[in-house]
Amino acid sequence: MLKDILSIAGYSGLYKYINKSRNGIIVEHLETKKRMNVNPSARINALEDISIFTDNEDMPLEKVFKAIYQHQDGKPTINPKKASTKELKDYFGTIIPEYDRDRVYNSDIKKILNWYNQLIKFDLIEITEEKEKGQEENKDESGNKNQDSNEKEEKQE
To answer: Is the confidence at residue 128, as pLDDT, over 50?
Structure first.
């Protein structure tokens, strides 16, 4: 889901990875669809590699987005530019109660909510993956159970 979506330090918005180039990588801005070459020395982060601090262990950004998606029923969230610091922290606390309030800054929350809204706008959040994986696991389990019962029947004969 988030593998090809990039955040580039010094540039606003999110970018989609297009291809490698001789002098770095080619990316496309999600909103403007303008392509540009990014120098390999730039600080580029794929959203799938980002996580937030919690009281227990780091939580991948994908899980954070899924929690927001479920809380918002697939709709955009509050506007982080217009919300106060208290509103942002309270809202984020309802979604991720275990987030580390000392190490996750207000600017981080704004970024995450802004990114979420952009991903929703361009229909880039996929929640169905977990359901499909769960169905596949159930199939595997039922397949194993059938094999076990077949083995038991063979032993009985």
So the answer is: yes
